[in-house]
Amino acid sequence: MCEHAEKTESILAWYDAQAREMPWRVPPEKSKMGVLPNPYHIWLSEVMLQQTTVAAVRKYFLRFTSRWPDIHALARAQDDEVMAAWAGLGYYARARNLLKSARIISGELHGNFPKSEKSLLELPGIGPYTAAAISAIAFGEKATVVDANVERVMTRMYNILEPLPDCKPKIYEHATALTPPDRAGDYAQAVMDLGATVCTQTPQCEYCPWAQDCMAFVRGTAVMLPVKRLKPKKPTRYGIAYFVRNSRGEILLETRPDTGLLGGMLCLPCSDWHEDTPTPAPPLAANWREAETIKHTFTHFHLYLHIYTAEIQDAAPFRGEFRKVVEGSLPTVMRKAYQSGISTLGSFKG
Ligand code: SF4
Prior knowledge:
This protein is α+β, with helices and mostly antiparallel strands. It is built from 14 helices and 6 strands. The protein has a 3-stranded mixed β-sheet, covered by helices on one side. The chain has a 3-stranded antiparallel β-sheet with strand order 3-2-6, with no helix packed on it. Helix 3 (about 40-50) crosses helix 4 (about 55-65), helix 10 (about 150-155) packs across helix 11 (about 170-180) and helix 10 (about 150-155) crosses helix 12. Iron/sulfur cluster (SF4) binds next to helix 10 and helix 13.
């Protein structure tokens, strides 16, 4: 047996015994018999998992699949229902692209998911990693799946000392050589599970099926890998969010434009967010009071948001509309702002 096949066999044997249970997966005892998972479940979970942990995705996945059990049901959903159901998961462009893709698959493709990486890449919001993951896991195609877990495992297995992201092509080459023609989906999930549970930041090499072959383990370099190029410091921006409540206990909200940060989401009206002092942009004339300042960190910047509150009888806002708020339908930063407004004004007494 060749060196790569031996490695593949040992990690698949480990996966057969140690696979993590996830609601979208088919367990190894079934996948070994050729049972493939529901492609709708794999597509949905992989889009949710972009930049998000398995623990956070689990409950959203279950909520989505019970509300929209198949691709046709999701394609028929209203945009604002899906955006509200996605609230709190972040990276809201994913939800907008999810809907666009659902409508393409349900309509133009008559419910048939594309199988190859190339055709998956044509769907909105599907990048190389997600295309490979869906192709391998949902359809058993021999696609090379490389996420951050796989990068960590490969840099250690082959003692790659070059920093990320420069060494990505090298990682991809090794990962491709190891991907087997059969059980490609299980293999991909096995390496990801190994990275998530054993080959972690502080690796537990004594439990690793690849310890004998691992160059970093032999050389004692594992904890130093992967090397990462230093990232520039995150900038800080400042803004104002306006929390205003009317005599019916409704809060003024507005839907952000479809493109850009928090695109398509319901939010408290805000000023622009700048690295300088924000320019006030109240959504109506009121006796505004400054409450606290909350902090939220996005991928590319820290945000300090000053919360201004007001209570009014009735007034027409310059923008947005007064609504009863379902807190779970707001994105995380706006939940913090909403909570801050409530704790300043107190609960609505009616
Ligand atoms: Fe990671 Fe240790 Fe296994 Fe190497 S031996 S792949 S460092 S867990």
